[in-house]
Amino acid sequence: MDERRTVKVSKYLSRHLRHQPERIGITPDPGGWVKIDTLIAAATAHGFRFTREELDHVVATNDKQRFVTDGDRIRARQGHSIEVDLGLPPATPPPYLYHGTVAGSLDAIRAEGLRAMGRHDVHLSADRETATRVGARRGRPVVLSVDSGAMHRDGHVFRVSANGVWLTAAVPPRYLRFPGPR
């Protein structure tokens, strides 16, 4: 499977498993799981064909490990805008986590902190390198440090997905460290 096809199938899966399952007539269970055969049949009926082998390739090779299969089911690991319960238990974060963004977002972040926006949670990275890659998707990246240790001590709940993405409802501005002068 060539890289362009892999990316195309991955984006299709993200759109329909995380955001718009109703668009192709699928209904994830409360945990976000969809039967693979149902997903493939619905995609085919809506003009986007892919095979189980292609799906397995995307799941296995996706650089962010966005998807997970369990027998005959698949779901996105995180990043949903639809209502799902991923069943992730609360976890104690490392002292600092990181968030990649772009300079154009900094004024709003300084005022409001990090918000989940259309997702269920704010996504944080355990290392600067990952946060840099995330921020670079939208332009020149800016990496913010999050005092997650202080947040946790103050009662904020964190969860971590199997692919290492840290999730929390929001990050108030007081827990953020901005790079360089304002």
Automatic annotation (TrEMBL):
GO terms for molecular function: NAD+ poly-ADP-ribosyltransferase activity; tRNA 2'-phosphotransferase activity. It is an enzyme of class 2 (transferase). Keywords: NAD, Transferase. The keyword RNA-binding does not apply. SUPFAM superfamilies: ADP-ribosylation. One of its GO terms (biological process) is tRNA splicing, via endonucleolytic cleavage and ligation. Removes the 2'-phosphate from RNA via an intermediate in which the phosphate is ADP-ribosylated by NAD followed by a presumed transesterification to release the RNA and generate ADP-ribose 1''-2''-cyclic phosphate (APPR>P). May function as an ADP-ribosylase. Belongs to the KptA/TPT1 family. This is Probable RNA 2'-phosphotransferase. It comes from Streptomyces dangxiongensis. The gene is kptA.
